[in-house]
Amino acid sequence: MSDYFQANFPLQSVAVTNSEVNSTSGDNNDDVSKKLALTIADAAADRKGGDILLLFVADVSYLADYFVFVTGYSRAQVRAITDAIEEKVETEWNRRPIRTEGKSEGSWVLEDYGEVIVHIMLPKEREFYNLEAFWGHGLRIDLPTTSVDSRGKPT
User: Fold this and answer.
1) Residues 63, 154 contacting (CB under 8 angstroms)
2) Distances 74 to 16, 105, 134 between C-alpha atoms, Å
3) How far apart are CA 39 and CA 58, in angstroms?
4) What's the gap between Cα 146 and its chain centre?
5) Which of 98-102, 114-118, 136-140 has the lowest mean pLDDT?
6) pTM above 0.85?
7) What does each C-alpha distance from 79 to 26, 111, 121, 154 come to in angstroms?
8) Helix (H) or strand (E) segment spanning residue 69
9) CA distance between the termini of the chain
10) Which residues lie closer than 8 Å to 30 by C-beta, 6 or more apart?
11) Whole-angstrom Cα distance, residue 68 to residue 45?
12) Taking each helix axis from N to C terminus, what angle separates 20-46 and 75-93, rounded to the nearest 10 degrees?
């Protein structure tokens, strides 16, 4: 039986070369992921989420293509931002998060959309865990600017 197995399967890896089909689909997936992440950031901004940060982490992590970090200034606002993101993504993308954690506590909500992971945190949690520094080697994506007050809250 082992001879049969070895005879039908090569022991060496087969190199896969880049083709137009592969590179186009990869670019398209990145573009879709980025548009989803921007939709999420926009929904958070609509609910006055603060210090919105979008990181491209696909080159440094297999977990997701993008992380979105948002500050909510109360537990109610954290939940409202979460609901706004879910509603907007469901409306525009016909998608629900794969998993949502922490919504009942409201101090740190994590939403997993597969290629985009969203962290909505109270300022104390965001400062304590400092995930931006941990994932700081990811590429920061600029968002459309809005005016903010001295505490980083949008006006």
Assistant:
1) no
2) 50, 11, 24
3) 18
4) 21
5) 136-140
6) no
7) 34, 11, 10, 18
8) strand 66-71
9) 71
10) 58, 65
11) 12
12) 140
Q: What's the pLDDT score for residue 6? A: 47
Half-sphere exposure of 63 (CA within 13 A, CB side): 14
Q: Is residue 110 predicted with pLDDT exceeding 80? A: yes
Helix (H) or strand (E) holding 110: strand 108-112
Give the separation between CA 149 and CA 155, rounded to whole angstroms: 7
Q: Tokens in use for 135?
A: 């994932």
The alpha helices in the chain, defined as continuous H runs, are 2-8, 20-46, 75-93, 123-129, 131-134
Structure token pair of residue 62: 């297999």
> Rounded distance, CA 138 to CA 47, Å?
26
Q: What are 61's two structure tokens?
A: 């992590």
Please answer whether residues 126 and 151 qualify as being in contact, where contact means their C-beta atoms are separated by less than 8 angstroms. Answer: no
Most confident option among 2-6, 8-12, 94-98, 129-133: 94-98
Query: Is 102 in a helix, a strand, or coil?
Result: coil
Residue 84 per-residue DSSP state: H
> What is the C-alpha separation between 82 and 93, in angstroms, rounded?
16
Could you read off the pLDDT of 51-102 as tens digits, one per residue?
A: 999 999 988 888 899 999 999 999 999 999 999 999 999 999 999 999 999 9
